[in-house]
TrEMBL record:
Keywords: Membrane, Transmembrane, Transmembrane helix. The chain crosses the membrane at residues 24-41, 50-70, 82-99. Residues 24-99 form the VanZ-like domain. InterPro entries: VanZ-like (IPR006976). Pfam families: VanZ (PF04892). This is VanZ family protein. It comes from Marinoscillum luteum.
Amino acid sequence: MLFLFLSPGSPKADTWFFVGEDKVAHLGIFLIWSFLVVWSFERSHLSLKAFFWVLSGALIFGLMTEWIQGYVPYRSSDLMDFMFDAAGAVLGLFLAYFMKKELNLADKKFDK
C-alpha cells in the first residue's frame, strides 16, 4: 500500500482512464485492506473494540499518506482522497462483518 500511495506521480496527469479514477483506487485499496484485517479475526474477537482499532488504524494511515503525498513529486494532498479512504475502510469493515455473520449462520444451520 505504501508503494502505491507514496510513489512519485507522473507529469502527464491527463492519462486517466476516467475522471475520478484515483478516488475509486483509494476506496478499493482501503476496502480490501480493512476487509482482510477483519476477516482474519476469529469469531470470538469480533467486537466493537476491534472494529474501532481497525477503523482508527485505517484513518491514521490515510491521513498520514495524504499528508506525505504533499511532499512527493507530482502528487498532492487531497481531502477527498482521505474521505474515500475512510469510506473504503468502513465498507470493508461492514462487508467482512456481515459475510462472517452469514457464514456463521450457515455453519450453524448445517450443524443440525
